[in-house]
Design goal:
Length: about 120
């Protein structure tokens, strides 16, 4: 993947992750903006993927949204390691036999989809 394509994808995925977490907490863009001391338009640009927040700003946003900073960066990525980490977190609350069922299902689906 080209560097510019990677950067554009990161801006988009971070923006979507922030928007989703903000909506989950029933905050408006203006409320989030006020809580970190920026204009509402700044949050709008970030959520649209027009601009990427600095690491310091991302940490402030994560603090207000009560999520780990890495979650805002990792959300929406197509990197296998990030997807694996997401699935691992999903499995955490399941009983061992249900975890095994999910593992078997993923194996079957992966095999089937790889033949397409």
């Amino acid at each position: 993947m080209k560097k510019s394509t990677l950067a554009e994808g990161l801006k988009t995925s971070v923006g979507k992750a922030i928007a989703a977490q903000r909506a989950r907490r029933q905050l408006t863009q203006e409320q989030l903006a006020r809580s970190i001391g920026v204009e509402g338009e700044t949050i709008s640009r970030i959520e649209r993927g027009s601009t990427l927040p600095t690491l310091a700003r991302l940490a402030e946003i994560a603090e207000v949204l009560d999520v780990p900073t890495f979650e805002l960066v990792r959300a929406g990525t197509t990197r296998r390691t990030d997807i694996g980490a997401d699935i691992s977190l999903m499995l955490k609350g399941l009983k061992p036999e249900d975890q095994q069922w999910v593992r078997d299902w993923v194996a079957q689906m992966s095999e089937k989809l790889s033949k397409r």
